[in-house]
Amino acid sequence: MEKLTIALSKGRPAKHTIETLEAADMQFIDFHEKSRKLVFYNVDESIKLIFVKAVDVPTYVERGAADIGIVGKDNILESRAEVYELLDLGIGKCKFSVAGFPNYSIDANRPLTVATKYPNVAEKHFSRKGQEIETVKLNGSVELAPLIGLADVIVDIVETGNTLKENGLTVLEDIDDISTRLIVNKASFATKATEVRSFIDQLNNALERTP
Ligand code: PRP
Ligand code: MG
Question: Domain remarks in the entry (predicted)?
């Protein structure tokens, strides 16, 4: 059997993913949430888990540093990585949206200023609509941008809608549905076909068993 390297990001979704892997009979004995270790093996060392930043998961998988990645669709879309997306884990559900002040109306005759952590996603969405934009790339708290005049609207993920609401903003347009997905390196999919398939099947069975 070939060994598999799986890239995950730390945080809440990773905890859920590890619980699912354990439910699928893959035990990572040393793993605990507060550990600062970045590499873990299962009991027979057939699986190596590496923890990377969520935005970097698609890059590790595209370049073959990991065979498989488990990460939010938001990061997959933004990265534009050439990978196979083979499973929707059905967790971490949220939406990509355009948000701004209620009743804000977009003027098609001038460039729209869009603050976002996801410039590629914003660019693609508005170019499809023929709307010219200028992106302001931020790394967080993007809801602040319209409030202080840094941007007209934002493109961001919306889960409960609380952050928008508490800042007097609202969803203007929906872009895409987001959830945690499993992605596979294209070469690994061919050279480690058996191992990749059996990993996905085991994970899928465990997901079907858990409510
Ligand atoms: C995320 C996202 C939204 C918010 C959506 O921000 O960028 O701001 O959560 O969740 P809600 O709809 O349930 O309020 P995060 O907390 O990750 O902080 P950051 O954007 O500053 O990184
Ligand atoms: Mg935010």
Answer: Lacks the C-terminal regulatory region which is replaced by HisZ.
Domain ranges of the chain: 4-92+179-209, 94-176
CATH of domain 4-92+179-209: 3.40.190.10
Residue 149 CB–ligand 1 contact under 6 Å: no
Q: Strand, coil or helix: what is 47?
A: strand
Collect all residues with Cβ–Cβ distance below 8 Å to 127 and sequence separation of at least 6: none
Return the CATH architecture of domain 94-176. 3-Layer(aba) Sandwich (3.40)
Q: How many CB atoms lie within 10 A of CB 101?
A: 15
Give the position, in ligand 1's atom list, of the atom nearest the Cα of 139.
Answer: 22
**CA 199 – ligand 1 centroid, Å:** 31
Percentage of the chain beyond pLDDT 70 is: 99
- Please state the rounded mean pLDDT for residues 176-202: 97
Give the pTM: 0.94
Give this complex's ipTM.
0.98
Fold match, 4-92+179-209 / 94-176: yes
Tokens linked to 165: 């609401």
Does the Cβ of 141 fall within 6 Å of ligand 1?
yes
